[in-house]
């Protein structure tokens, strides 16, 4: 409140100074209403007029003729200051409202926890009493009374109303009471900018998750959004309301049938037959609660139903309460029984995990509401002039198309083919008439082929793997396959006259379109640069554009699924562009993934290969963590690639699809081996693991060689500091320091953090980057002219120039120095040349 008073006082003082000006006698005179009106008109057009514009204003407006130009300038300064103070006051009011609402939410959570403690104390006392009774009277027959629920007829309105009221009571006891033993998820940061407070069940039937949050939307609007589950729940295939009737108390009851996708090719999909009850409470809150009904219910034909396993939704829903000053407080509860018995043993932890339900449903719902609220307030800016709703539709279509390909439902037109003994790859075919993502204008296509596979990876961080696949597409993808898919989808005037011979330059440019509020999902356009090899088309660009979503690249996210899904798209990006998505999905799976206590005690350490640089753990600690991680860290990788084809090319495309996907699998396995701490080969270990003794030794050689050549220190080292300190200083050096091999085509082998940032790469991918690849034409010429000098005298200074990151972005630097790095032996008489080092001074992105 003190901040508000200061802001209001400043606004009043500014307003007073704006109403007066000095006259020719040096006295303060108030502006007339006509003068203020004239100034305000100019201010609305130009809040900061130039000196010429102010003088022109005095000449053109006679009522301002007696005011000095300096006074006019002061008036505009004060007016801008008053606008700024008003905005600050409004912001402080908004923050104050959010803090008040969050305080109320935390107080309610504290009350609930106190009730839970009291209940546990009572239960503990009761159990002690029961134990004493059993010990004292062993021969006493115990009678267990099971509460008998009144039988309800789900086929009558009265029976459904009874079920609805019971569902409401059970849901409220979970949302605000102690019906479920909730445990807070790690990483909770209450505050005005937090998304919400999240909890998962510790001991209960099925899996459950809960979220509480503050959103600047009205309750009715939030209820409408959340009831439209396919718009925000990516695994929801369809939702159909079969019956709706009033409940008699202002509420409505709906009978709902919902189908969900399976995340992999190894398990069947789920469906739900539920009762959904929408009503309002006496305190003005709005409730949408839901639970499963017994029986087969409505739904698809028996043939279609055989593709699904009926799952159970226990009492779940949304409690939406209006907030003082606008907005709402939301309580979300998701409680499911996913019938884990129906999936292979390796996947069962995935279906018994409360944190997976939290990530996919509970947190996603709250994030989606927050996203829409920020979009409606104009707080988010998107690329290429696209509206937020259009970009959301693009993301949903990519995700839905990939899920359709992975599941291959028969009622969508998919059927399984054989692929010449390729038992590890499933090949399916679909005709275009069944594909929702293909427009009617492409009816000339024979259909779409999908090659998909699922595999288990050991000790591979999903976020690191997906990030590598995103940043280094040339390591696993074939440009000609991308070009073929793009050309096949182009009809009419945009069609290629056949797939012309094309050279891929190896460059990809990622252009961001939009992202969610916590950057857990990014929508972007990828341009793959290609040029025709045909002489008549030598100057024509053959670039391929891909629309792409990337999710789950935050390594610290709890239980997150990482995805990279992409589809060829026309370069003009029409809103109704046909999309045939392909991609990767990596799901972390752990033997104890459903144990909340295990979730709390886990250290959530970053699995990046550079993590050991932070504090330099002892070898014993590092090896201990690695071994424990290796024994429990697993993930499921699902790959699905779709290929549109013309009717007469089905067999050819089928063969190409199998061969290509097998090649992609080999590449991904090679990358996984490289980034897995347990899978690094000895030859790569010394280069990739900066916490190793080899990296410590290399950093000393870099520093000593720099001093030997230039006569000054690269880093300032205290004589009392350990050898590891040199590595830390070089790693955190502000200049980009990179080392490359002495091969005929030098390849980078080490870089500090600034070097990785400049090249926009990782230590794993660094070894695939050649020295000449990062320079433009002029930079390569300068390097060639000074290379002989470098090899002769041992060092060289390169002038300012421009280099390229792996993402195709231009980087400027004021100076670059290069020097030979010697392997200094103890006797200093046998120093062998080890590598070349480069330091880019004061670099920045253009």
TrEMBL record:
Residue intervals of the START domain: 153-381
Family matches, as Pfam families: Homeodomain, MEKHLA, START
UniProt-listed InterPro entries: HD (IPR001356), HD-Zip_III (IPR044830), Homeodomain-like_sf (IPR009057), MEKHLA (IPR013978), START-like_dom_sf (IPR023393), START_lipid-bd_dom (IPR002913)
Superkingdom of the source species: Eukaryota
Location (main, coarse): nucleus
GO molecular function (one): DNA-binding transcription factor activity
Domain Homeobox: 22-86
Region annotation (Disordered) ranges: 1-22, 610-630
DNA-binding region, residue intervals: 24-87
Segments forming a coiled coil: 92-123
Keyword Glycosyltransferase applies: no
Protein name per its UniProtKB record: Homeobox domain-containing protein
Naturally occurring in which organism (per UniProt): Brassica campestris
Organism lineage: Eukaryota, Viridiplantae, Streptophyta, Embryophyta, Tracheophyta
């Amino acid at each position: 409140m003190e901040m508000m008073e200061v802001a209001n006082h400043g606004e009043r003082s500014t307003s007073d100074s704006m109403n007066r000006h000095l006259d020719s006698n040096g006295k303060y005179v108030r502006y007339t209403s006509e003068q203020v009106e004239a100034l305000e008109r100019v201010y609305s057009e130009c809040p900061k007029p130039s000196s010429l514009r102010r003088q022109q204003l005095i000449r053109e407006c006679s009522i301002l003729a007696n005011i000095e130009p300096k006074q006019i300038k002061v008036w505009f300064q004060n007016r801008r200051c008053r606008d700024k103070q008003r905005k600050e006051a409004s912001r402080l009011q908004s923050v104050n409202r959010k803090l008040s609402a969050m305080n109320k939410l935390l107080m309610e959570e504290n009350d609930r926890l106190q009730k839970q403690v009291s209940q546990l104390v009572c239960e503990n006392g009761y159990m002690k009493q029961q134990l004493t009774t059993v010990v004292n009277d062993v021969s006493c027959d115990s009678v267990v009374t099971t509460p008998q629920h009144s039988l309800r007829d789900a086929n009558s309105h009265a029976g459904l109303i009874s079920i609805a009221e019971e569902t409401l009571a059970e849901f409220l006891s979970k949302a605000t009471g102690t019906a479920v033993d909730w445990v807070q998820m790690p990483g909770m940061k209450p505050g005005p900018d937090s998304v919400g407070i999240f909890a998962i069940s510790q001991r209960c039937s099925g899996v459950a998750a809960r979220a509480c949050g503050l959103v600047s939307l009205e309750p009715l609007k939030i209820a409408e959004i959340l009831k439209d589950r396919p718009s925000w729940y990516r695994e929801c295939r369809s939702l159909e309301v079969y019956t709706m009737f009033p409940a008699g108390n202002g509420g409505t009851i709906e009978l709902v049938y919902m189908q969900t996708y399976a995340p992999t090719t190894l398990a069947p999909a789920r469906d739900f037959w539920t009762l959904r009850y929408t009503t309002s409470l006496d305190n003005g809150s709005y409730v949408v609660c839901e639970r499963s009904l017994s029986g087969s219910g409505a739904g698809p034909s028996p043939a279609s139903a055989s593709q699904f396993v009926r799952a159970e939704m226990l009492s779940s829903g949304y409690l939406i309460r209006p907030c003082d000053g606008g907005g709402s407080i939301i309580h979300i509860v998701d409680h499911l029984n996913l019938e884990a018995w129906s999936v292979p043993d390796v996947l069962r932890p995935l279906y018994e995990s409360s944190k997976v339900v939290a990530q996919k449903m509970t947190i996603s719902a709250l994030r989606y509401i927050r996203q829409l609220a920020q979009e409606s307030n104009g707080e988010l800016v998107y690329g290429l002039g696209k509206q937020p709703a259009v970009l959301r539709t693009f993301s949903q279509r990519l995700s839905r198309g990939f899920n359709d390909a992975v599941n291959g439902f028969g009622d969508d037109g998919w059927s399984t083919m054989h692929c010449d003994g390729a038992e590890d790859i499933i090949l399916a075919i679909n005709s275009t008439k069944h594909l929702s993502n293909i427009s009617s204008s492409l009816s000339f296509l024979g259909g779409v082929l999908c090659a998909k596979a699922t595999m288990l990876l050991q000790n591979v961080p999903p976020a690191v793997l997906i990030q590598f696949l995103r940043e280094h597409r040339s390591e696993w993808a074939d440009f000609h396959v991308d070009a073929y898919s793009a050309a096949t989808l182009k009809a009419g005037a945009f069609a290629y006259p056949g797939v012309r011979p094309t050279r891929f330059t190896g460059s990809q440019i990622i252009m961001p379109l939009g992202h969610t509020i916590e950057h857990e999902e990014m929508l972007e356009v990828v341009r793959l640069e290609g040029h025709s090899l045909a002489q008549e088309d030598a100057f024509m660009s053959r670039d391929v554009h891909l629309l792409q979503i990337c999710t789950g690249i935050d390594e610290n996210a709890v239980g997150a699924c990482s995805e990279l899904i992409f589809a060829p798209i026309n370069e003009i990006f029409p809103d109704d562009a046909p999309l045939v998505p392909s991609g990767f999905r990596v799901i972390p799976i752990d033997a104890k993934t459903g144990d909340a206590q295990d979730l709390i005690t886990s250290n959530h350490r970053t699995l990046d290969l550079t993590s050991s640089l932070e504090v330099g753990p002892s070898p014993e600690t590092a090896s201990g963590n690695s071994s424990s991680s290796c024994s429990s860290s697993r993930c499921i990788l699902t790959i699905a690639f779709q290929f549109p084809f013309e009717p007469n090319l089905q067999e050819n495309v089928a063969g190409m699809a199998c061969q290509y996907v097998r090649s992609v699998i080999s590449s991904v396995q090679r990358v996984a081996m490289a980034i897995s701490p347990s899978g690094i080969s000895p030859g790569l270990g010394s280069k990739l693991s900066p916490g190793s003794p080899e990296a410590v030794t290399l950093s000393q050689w870099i520093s000593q060689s720099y001093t030997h050549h230039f006569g000054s220190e690269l880093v300032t080292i205290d004589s009392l500091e350990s050898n590891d300190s040199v590595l830390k200083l070089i790693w955190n050096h502000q200049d980009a320091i990179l080392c490359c091999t002495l091969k005929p085509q030098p390849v980078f082998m080490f870089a500090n953090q600034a070097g990785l940032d400049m090249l926009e790469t990782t230590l794993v991918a660094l070894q695939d980057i050649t020295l000449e690849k990062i320079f433009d034409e002029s930079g390569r010429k300068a390097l060639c002219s000074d290379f002989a000098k470098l090899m002769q005298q041992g060092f060289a200074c390169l002038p300012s120039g421009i280099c390229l990151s792996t993402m195709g972005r231009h980087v400027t630097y004021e100076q670059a120095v290069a020097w030979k790095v010697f392997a200094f032996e103890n006797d200093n008489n046998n120093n062998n040349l080890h590598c070349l080092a480069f330091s880019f001074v004061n670099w920045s992105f253009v």
